[in-house]
């Protein structure tokens, strides 16, 4: 494939595929320009490497081979809540439990191929865990920049892969720009949320959804939005499918934010093409840690993805997220993190507004497993206590006897 | 496919496929008797339902569709520790993070098809979580029998799917037998660890390993052993492959136990065909909760699987398990639970004894994700603190500058 970069906004092209941002200021992505034959020639293998020809590296050994290839599941139990026909694309079924593995599987080997023995990332959550795992698998050093006040729980999840962990004091939100400068100055690739090779990895989620649903095409793809990186990857995947002549109509990309930090929703509602960064005063606390981003680096591109596909951006409260998380488990059988549950809450909002038709196929993309931070042992759980020898009596009163 | 049951030991057959044990006392399994054409005709789809024709039910909707289809990954970082060529079959990438989903995906709909609206299980770990999730997905009641002293962490993981949770006082180890009696007396299928439909689900893991490695066949398949249910499923899968004429040589099934509860290792070393249940006095504490089973209901069948394939059973200590868990993460990029890490420790033991050849393909099967009970925030993690404006100086001393 071509390995040139281009800017979605001004159209400028660059040959250096380690560059992150265009001279115009917007983030770049890597061109693939697939044709119909790119689909016909796919190898018959599992996982995201079925689309190797459309990625900027060859399939590496190690944990990268376990990334992607997640199931898409028809989930009638969530139809009511979505207003359409619900499908779940369970990105929790990745090696580190999040879609981030698709990006790391491409971006970490890509950085190594470009000559960097050391990779890094700016994250205290799923991206940090994933980048550290993929670096470990390829036996490379990894430096993770976390905020000074990171929780012990998150620290432990990252530390298992033994990266160098640097607690950064000062304004953590400024680290995105710092990371690009540090990558230029020192022999390290700090793989930020919208590193172009990451975005290439993310687009494979759309290819898998397309292939699993064919000959039907999805009407709505709903995902949580934070930096705008995943939304960019989903849009790139849709553009690749269009380039290959496979899409009659674009799926509507619907992004869901937490009301605690929703610059994209505000910009979408105001008709703006760029989000306005939210100040610390405007930004609230939320259980949806993974998407509490007041200043998304790919925010303008995410908004363009939504507008290009006729989608929407909505915000939901923590209460709505909790209710949606419960529905994912109780009506769907899926354990998802709060940020992922937001997708269902967001689509419910759209359905209430009449923006989902009953026959629409609605693909919810829970981006991360709920198992990572569940099981604190602090939840109140209702149980009953029965002695072993009384179990039959108890079941008799609960269920009665078998008919003869 | 045929839906009759048979006994691996005495060969007796039964037409009632809800029966669990043979009159001879041993557990039953469901016959499939595949031929070579069973493989040629597989549909091109992801997940375990590629083998639908060899399963006793049709593919259901819901979370069952997300079970199996896990990646098999060449993992050179673990070659040293295995003494051969290491592959990881990452069963953590299941919807509830464990191979148990393969069993629940078949057994829960199978019980419903047999007329039971209520399912149950005897477990306080992965099997409970999985059974509750699959029942929720199909909108059926689920009753989970847990020990009276279950931890709050585990309770929370199970309770998210809202089954009825019964804390059972009295001797929890006797509940396997009770469960069979309760299922006969009341309109509930209590799906124990070796319910025949579960075993059918487990065999798909072997089919996937075979298909991913073809034309090579695996030399060693290493898994943790507790009840012997998964070992039985792996053996059934191997027998199906042989029946279809696809295997020139059987992979050696190697089972790994915790030294705290290792009746299978003791029986294997003593040349016995049946394990002797261990008393509470003989049974120790272990970090590998998932396999601390002193009285495995499918123990004799698991031993038969090992002997039939030329495999082995070994026990490992908690210290070995901790070291192996670290290696899985640091050298492989995989986060696995302690019971799963035991596979690597066990194969290392076999390698030391000269039972693994350098060119052997060794498939480690981590059966469950490590994310469920990790992140207590209590681990000591080494970090360094740097102010944002000093990061470049810090990277300069760590890594130097880029060459011009």
Automatic annotation (TrEMBL), chains A, B:
Q: Tell me, which GO biological process terms does this entry list? A: isoleucine biosynthetic process; L-serine catabolic process; L-threonine catabolic process
Q: Which cofactors go with this protein?
A: pyridoxal 5'-phosphate
| The keyword Lyase is assigned to this record | yes
**Which CDD domains does its entry note?**
Thr-synth_1 (cd01563)
Its keywords, alphabetically, are: Lyase, Pyridoxal phosphate
In Pfam terms, one family for this protein is PALP
Q: Where is this region: Disordered?
A: 270-299
Q: Where is the signal peptide?
A: none
One term of GO molecular function: L-serine ammonia-lyase activity
Q: What is this protein called?
A: Threonine synthase
């Amino acid at each position: 494939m071509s390995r040139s970069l281009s800017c979605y906004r001004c159209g400028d092209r660059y040959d250096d595929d380690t560059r992150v941002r265009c001279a115009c200021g917007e983030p770049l992505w890597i061109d693939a320009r697939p044709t119909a034959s790119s689909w016909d020639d796919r190898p018959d293998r599992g996982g995201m490497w079925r689309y190797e020809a459309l990625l900027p590296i060859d399939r590496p050994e190690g944990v990268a081979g376990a990334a992607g290839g997640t199931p898409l599941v028809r989930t009638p139990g969530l139809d009511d809540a979505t207003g359409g026909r619900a499908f779940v694309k369970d990105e929790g079924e990745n090696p580190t439990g999040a879609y981030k593995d698709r990006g790391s599987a491409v971006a970490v080997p890509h950085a190594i191929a470009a000559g960097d023995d050391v990779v890094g990332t700016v994250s205290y959550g799923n991206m940090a865990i994933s980048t550290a795992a993929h670096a470990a698998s390829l036996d490379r050093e990894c430096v993770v920049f976390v905020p000074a006040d990171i929780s012990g729980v998150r620290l432990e999840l990252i530390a298992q892969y033994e990266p160098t962990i640097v607690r950064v004091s000062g304004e953590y939100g400024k680290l995105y720009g710092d990371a690009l400068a540090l990558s230029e100055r020192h022999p390290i690739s700090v793989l930020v949320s919208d590193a172009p090779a990451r975005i290439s990895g993310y687009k494979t989620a759309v290819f898998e959804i397309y292939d699993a649903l064919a000959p039907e095409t999805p009407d709505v793809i709903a995902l949580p939005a934070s930096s705008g990186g995943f939304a960019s990857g989903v849009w790139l995947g849709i553009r690749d499918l269009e380039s290959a002549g496979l899409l009659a109509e674009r799926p509507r990309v619907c992004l869901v934010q937490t009301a605690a930090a929703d610059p994209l929703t505000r910009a979408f509602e105001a008709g703006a093409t760029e989000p306005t960064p939210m100040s610390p005063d405007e930004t609230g606390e939320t259980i949806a840690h993974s998407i509490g981003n007041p200043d998304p680096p790919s925010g303008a591109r995410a908004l363009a993805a939504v507008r290009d596909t006729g989608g929407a951006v909505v915000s939901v409260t923590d209460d709505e997220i909790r209710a949606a998380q419960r529905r994912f488990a109780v009506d769907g059988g899926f354990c998802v993190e709060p940020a992922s549950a937001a997708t269902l809450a967001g689509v419910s909002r759209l359905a209430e507004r009449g923006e989902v038709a009953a026959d629409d196929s609605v693909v919810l993309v829970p981006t991360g497993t709920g198992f990572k931070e569940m099981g604190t042992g602090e939840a109140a759980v209702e149980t009953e206590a029965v002695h072993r020898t009384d179990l039959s009596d108890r079941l008799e009163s609960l269920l009665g006897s078998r008919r003869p």
